[in-house]
Amino acid sequence: MEGTKLGTNVDSADGEVRAYELVLRYIEAGILEGRYGNGTLLPPERDLAALLRVGRPAVREAIRVLSAQGLIAASTGRGGGTRIVAAQDDALGRILRLHLAIAGQGIHDLTETRIALEKVSVAAAARSATEADIAELDEVLAAMAEDDQIESFNSLDTEFHVLIARAGSNSLVADLTVAIREAVKDPIREASYEMGDWQEFRLGLIEQHQGIRDAIAERDVDQAVNLTERHIRGAFHALTGVSDD
Fold first, then answer.
1. What DSSP string runs through 186-235?
2. Which of 97, 144, 154, 206 is the most buried (most CB within 10 A)?
3. Cβ distance 179 to 93 under 8 Å?
4. What contacts 143, CB < 8 A, 6 or more positions away?
5. Which helix (H) or strand (E) covers residue 15, if one does?
6. Whole-angstrom Cα distance, residue 4 to residue 9?
7. DSSP output for 57-100
8. What domains can be seen in the chain, in order of their start residue?
9. 111 contact partners, CB below 8 Å, separation of at least 6
């Protein structure tokens, strides 16, 4: 490797490495090694280009890729620049939705994944939720009781489940919960509009959410887990008309 410049194509297991991929690998390595944490300001474009011996267009292309993945955010003005950020929910959801489409996987697989995640998060919430956490759940439940519009109601539904994950102090599960809902947002919306008894379905969801909330408040881990699984499986069946077995 002596004499090899970082900016040139080099052999790898996948063949040749393009210049922007070198920038990607450098930044990703910095994140994995702990040099770049959430909020860390990346070096200026010209400095990265000089350090890695690549052209500035290669740096810009790498920045575009990382931005699309929700891993960095750019700002202007004093104190501005390109910073590492925690994965954004909407970006993660878009990536997951596209991955599922390419892989040919459907809502059934995603539902099973969601059940596994949310059983963990609701158990943690039942053990550690604070009065403030319960109050937030109550606020969302109250809003759901007043909201009879499909789009906004579904957003409140997602918020309820995200709050449970955060009450269990698991921000990753919260992000994944949003991502999964983002990935299936369109089929859920379409199925909701096609239901002849959506208002009745909506009232059932509110009642189920109330039961989960009560189990969390009462520190009843088993009940919270059982109700959550029944709730998700029941909603899947009602929206798709098929068994989840």
1. HHHHHHHHH-TTHHHHHHHHHHHHHHHHHHHHTT-HHHHHHHHHHHHHHH
2. 144
3. yes
4. 156
5. strand 15-16
6. 9
7. HHHHHHHHHHHHTTSEEEE-STT-EEEE-PPPHHHHHHHHHHHH
8. 11-84 (1.10.10.10), 89-240 (1.20.120.530)
9. 232, 233, 236, 244
Query: Whole-angstrom Cα distance, residue 70 to residue 134?
Result: 30
Q: How far apart are CA 7 and CA 14, in angstroms?
A: 17
Q: Taking the CA atoms of the chain, what radius of gyration do you get in angstroms?
A: 22
Tell me the residue type at 214.
D
- Core vs surface per residue 185-194: b (16+ CB within 10 A) or e: beebeebbee
pLDDT at 111: 86
Task: Answer positive or negative: Cα dihedral of 52, 55, 56, 62.
Answer: negative
**CB atoms inside a 10 Å sphere around CB 162:** 21
pTM of structure: 0.67
Residue 81 phi, psi dihedral angles, 5° rounding? 140, -165
Contact 84, 71 (CB under 8 A): yes
In the numeric block, the tokens 């959550």 are attached to 228
In tens digits, the chain (245 residues) has pLDDT values of: 333 344 444 333 343 468 889 999 999 899 888 898 888 899 999 999 999 999 999 999 998 888 877 788 877 666 668 888 765 556 666 666 666 666 555 678 888 988 999 999 999 999 999 999 999 999 999 999 999 999 999 989 989 998 998 898 877 777 787 777 777 777 888 899 999 899 999 999 999 999 999 999 999 999 999 999 999 999 999 988 766 55
Distance of CA 40 to the CA centre of its chain: 21
